[in-house]
Amino acid sequence: MPQDEVIDEPFSIEIEEEEKPGPTINMDLVDEEPQQQIQAQPKQPVQQQVTEEVVNEQLFEIPAEQEANTDSVEQPNQNLETTEASQVEADAIEGEVVEEEPTNDAAAFAAEVAKAQARAQASQNPFLIQKDANLPKPTSPMPTLELLYHPEKRDNHIDKEALQDIARLVEAKLADYKIKAQVVGIFPGPVITRFELDLAPGVKVSRISGLSMDLARSLSAMAVRVVEVIPGKPYVGLELPNMSRQTVYLSDVISSPTFTENKSPTAVVLGQDIAGDAVVGDLAKMPHVLVAGTTGSGKSVGVNVMILSMLYKSTPEDVRFIMIDPKMLELSIYEGIPHLLSEVVTDMKDASNALRWCVGEMERRYKLMSALGVRNLKGFNDKLKMAADAGHPIHDPLWQPGDSMDAEPPLLEKLPYIVVVVDEFADLIMVVGKKVEELIARIAQKARAAGIHLILATQRPSVDVITGLIKANIPTRVAFTVSTKTDSRTILDQGGAESLLGMGDMLYLPPGSSHTIRVHGAFASDDDVHAVVNDWKARGKPQYIEAITQAEQSADSLLPGEKPEGDEDVDPLFDQVVEHVTETRRGSVSGVQRRFKIGYNRAARIVEQLEAQGIVSAPGHNGNREVLAPPPIKDV
């Protein structure tokens, strides 16, 4: 048999049967020195300190030629001069103030004092100076990669002899459990290494799957994941964590050709696979994503990475966002970017109204596309562009003379994609109820062609939150670390997520596939998010649609069987109940039940209708209702 060949990663190693496993294990696949160099140079923000003496002296009236010098106090990340230089400048300012003649305009003097006090307050509280007016104007049409953190060049060293020793150890440990297998391929990655096993004839894969915990103990590993089926190969995969783990940064994936060559405005970054290749998806083809994982698994970072990647690809004319954040922490950082259709929704009632607005917008877009004879949003926008280039713009076919003051229908404009991001879906279900589930199911069923997409995230992957109705309409799922195998089956319909390593380690189930892909999620720090958000804030302000969070119901946004508020049908027994209540002077639900032999729900609904009509009062502290209507006039 030929000697082992050294091949660039990913590579395959053949193990000679006569070689014995080594006595020691060395799993240092990556040099630790480059990682230590990266960690030794964190980004440190520039701190500014303003002495009390300088601030107090700025409360005097400052001449116009000196007022420009005070602008440096308002800038957060500029180096201030030394205390001695500041004292000399303050003395010069004070001398000029003394030489000036006193002014008689008290209002002007008070205004100058107010400005000086505001500058002093801003210098003492740097959080007050983060205003849109102070943001630098960007020069490039889209955010640049310089806004993100770039790690130093990492020269990864792979110890092939150590990998061969581990492969022999894996074969030996499997032999202890009476399983004959041979390692035929080794694929090292940034976080884990996959060993491909060729099982002996007659050995079932289920035997290895049941030994995952025992193998982790025998190999002294944190967790071992068994890949029962590798697409396109007759082998079984065994994934072991590396002793030295690399961090996958967002800048590494965004600068990769996989992302830069993707022209879709809804391209989303996930991370890198086990071989270190970038994993990028297209939200327009997914078309909805369900993200689940326990606290601290990297779920919120993964959602932020998806949003940032779309901010790097799209303008507000291409993609608009509706963000629902019950925790008021994760998505509120995006407040003020021009991509938002409304303010970040934190009230759950407003969240229900926002989803209902999306249903109405979906129906409106379908009517427009049907009138133009196109099948999806891309075809709609392409047809508008072709008509405009030909000099024959298309007017709104749904316009009615009473819709506006215009004498002719307005021109159709490009429709952007709408991405609805829900950070904690379980809280939304708990507060609002099943109606939200029906709204989300309706959007997930029909909104793909209309260009409306969902990103749902939850840290409670239970069956009462991720129901079968939602799973049936959201084929793309991302599972971070979960507690039990039951939670993994709830998300992915298969196990494996309970064996992940955390910190962004995920299983990605692409649309139209039943095989998961292990992805190491990209990391984006708070500084990266702030930099991209401030860059977009400097480019423009958002134009909010107030109707999104308002409780207006259109005929298109109603669910099947639902009726508008205030348009409830009157019960056929209503008149008879009115006669009975006014005669007996008792308006209790139980009395209506006994008299007309109906159920509690129907009787309670009739009594509520009586209250709405002013026939009976609202229930008092003891639950009794007072009959307000006069008794009927009896014929003599």
From TrEMBL:
Annotated localization: Cell membrane
- Stretches the record annotates as Disordered: 1-27, 63-87
Q: Which GO terms describe its biological process?
A: cell division; chromosome segregation
Query: What are the alphabetically sorted keywords of the record?
Result: ATP-binding, Cell cycle, Cell division, Cell membrane, Chromosome partition, DNA-binding, Membrane, Nucleotide-binding, Transmembrane, Transmembrane helix
| Domain of life the protein comes from | Bacteria
Q: What's an example GO cellular component term for this entry?
A: plasma membrane
Q: Does the keyword Glycoprotein apply?
A: no
User: Where is the major localization of this protein?
Assistant: membrane
Q: How does it sit in the membrane?
A: Multi-pass membrane protein
Q: Which CDD domains match?
A: TrwB_TraG_TraD_VirD4
Outline the extent of the FtsK domain: 276-489
- Single Gene Ontology MF annotation: DNA binding
This one is known as DNA translocase FtsK
